[in-house]
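User: Please work through this fold.
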Amino acid sequence: MKQYNVLFLCTHNSARSIIGEALASTHPSGKLRGFSAGSTPGASVNPYAAQIAKELGFDTFLLKSKSWDVFALPDAPKMDFIITVCDNAAGEVCPHWPGQPVSAHWGFPDPSQVQGTDMEKKAAFNEVMNGLKKRVDILAAMPLEKLDAMSLKEIHSNS
């Protein structure tokens, strides 16, 4: 079975895109391989996002905030899908992606901006994780070899 590479993009690559990477990589279908990056990566992965990745069974040793430029290099894995998960990254000029992957925007509010108790912060991260999980589940259930940009955008509007 072919595995499809999915790159999740967010400005700092510290929370939403990290959760997307973990969800795709640990999806029970085995069809997806997740990656994540950002336009201006931060110094570290948000600890709440790292905890979610760990709970999903993702190897947290692999988690790091990285620039999207590494995925535009000639020796980078070829992406099948590029998904922006924050509004800032969706509006930025992205590098040229080899292979012309299908792209879409699945916007979510930044859970790392939530102020409050530890419980409130965890709830914000879990809300993003649940929303991304629904969309990743829909993506994995589709005939990926026939998927186009319009189909991928419909996942956003139907979830």
About this structure: The first strand starts at residue 4 and ends at 9. Residues 118-141 form the longest helix (24 residues).
